[in-house]
Design goal:
Two copies of one chain form a homodimer.
Chain A (H helix, E strand, L loop, with lengths): L3 H6 L3 H7 L2 H13 L1 H6 L5 H8 L3 H13 L3 E4 L2 E4 L1 H6 L12 H4 L2 H8 L1 H7 L15 H8 L1 H16 L6 E5 L5 H9 L4 E6 L1 H13 L6 E5 L11 E7 L7 H14 E11 L10 H13 L8 H10 L4 E4 L8 E6 L1
Helix pairs in contact in A: 3-6, 5-6, 11-14, 12-13, 15-17
Amino acid sequence: MITPAERQSTTPERFFNAINSYQLTEAIKSAVELDVFTAVTEGNETTATIARRCQASERGIRILCDFLTIHGFLTKQATIYSLAPDSALFLDRNSPAYVGSAIEFLLTPRLRECHAHLTEAVRQGGTVLGEGMLHPENPDWVKYARGMMPMARRPAEIIADELRKDGEARKVLDVAASHGMFGIAVATRNPAAHIYASDWGNVLEVAQKNADAMGVGDRYHLIPGSAFETDFGNGYDLALVTNLLHAFDPPTCTKLMHKVHVALSPGGRAAIVEYVPNPDRVSPPVAAAFSLTMLAATDSGDAYTFAERDSMSNAAGFARVELSPADLGRNRLLIAYR
Amino acid sequence: MITPAERQSTTPERFFNAINSYQLTEAIKSAVELDVFTAVTEGNETTATIARRCQASERGIRILCDFLTIHGFLTKQATIYSLAPDSALFLDRNSPAYVGSAIEFLLTPRLRECHAHLTEAVRQGGTVLGEGMLHPENPDWVKYARGMMPMARRPAEIIADELRKDGEARKVLDVAASHGMFGIAVATRNPAAHIYASDWGNVLEVAQKNADAMGVGDRYHLIPGSAFETDFGNGYDLALVTNLLHAFDPPTCTKLMHKVHVALSPGGRAAIVEYVPNPDRVSPPVAAAFSLTMLAATDSGDAYTFAERDSMSNAAGFARVELSPADLGRNRLLIAYR
């Protein structure tokens, strides 16, 4: 299989880099926690001035900033550090596009612990930590709602605009509303729209605050509790099912989609936002790789292909499902028609 | 600083990938622990057969193997997985070049914990976990000696061959001998050579076993204890100081190099094996990045440039230091002449 020439030139570097890749996680986390990127934006460009601004040691800042330079998040000319364009846009705390808050959820100890038990999860076929991330009122979902909100704003706007093309929705169900951004984007575009947000009670406090802050609080209604158990009511033109279904196996997805189907009016639509890997399940990389998190953190969740989502939606009673070409970054928008 | 066009095309993907990069660490660790690469080498190429061989769930293996494919360690054609050339060479347990044992040390919990406290380490300028990795008889160094031995074999041979060009050494001091491979390589080339190995007692058991296995055990002598406190004796032609000095600050390095200098005969040499970053401290990437581990895991260790090593060796009494062009992979060989 391996030629002598290949053997000669092949090194174990990729393996060692992979083994050590957790160090990049820690370095980015530390840089966000210490606000290094904000410090550099403010004009602190040397280890001495960054260290003073970040209340850290000069030695620690020098080593951290060199590491961030090696990985391309900073650049270094002699002893002067600058921000890479994406660091300037997304990691400066004063940038409107700041996403550093995402570490609150993405690196929450429970999720790290789930991955730390990956070997057992592979053996067993699902999380070995009880319900994984899915126990009722898990405070990590409050972290999600707070930390991931900035990342949802732009996709929420794109989706709301996309959905309006087929007509305004007046009564909207937001299943697993989280920060509420997806429903709120619909409400801000249509003054006649009322949003009914379903999620754990602790999470809905965040959504209601966001709805109030964006001036739609009086048209924002809460359905606290498990999406599988609460009464959604009915007569909805539109249901939003965003970043939720990946946590469950196909029968459970079908069950929930059926509950959504029943809640919709004739002519109603469900907008599903999800990671959608290609049928090969190894592309596109981010969507396909998300399966690993579902293996580590849930019993039987997964990143499902379009064909699988289509099949589950059909089984739930939907007439057809369309994959929207809208560019949401990591996720895709699917529209299921009642 | 950022043009509107750049802003448009700039995404936070690199940030999210960096945040999640710990998942690659966990996936590679699981694959090694479950022996996935060995299973595929043996002809198990589908999720069903790999799962049976690895005593794991089919769902877990499918998700893990897809993740490894996304990261290039496997390839996938329809439902058939194959090994990338470097995976075949280094991660199949039956390959003579197998390096999977490295996870025992590189991912030892103590080291992970040091990095998990990186933010505090940056604030403080060194490890916040007491002596970090450097407490006496730390069993992690036994893991190092066992796990890193395969990686040391080839560099040890290259170094031994390189050093012979200047004449055979008869009395050799191996400071921080660990697995012993560097001294053993000298002994196997010169039947007149005697090796005096210094390291913690628990580590030297591994070195002695390796020396016995390679037929040089009767010329292998042990100096158990801290390299800073034990009596090295004197009259050495050659001292090996491999992968040790990075753990200390310059005055401590100078102190140890002075102790080595005193132990050498006139005309003796010290061979130093180390990460040697360029003066910019951000290249080459692996050598430069090693500073972060020293920040997290030691009080004041670092990856030192050639100029810094030269200066410490001179202060310790050495006449001159040469940087060998020998290709050792991640490390460099420096020769300090008494």
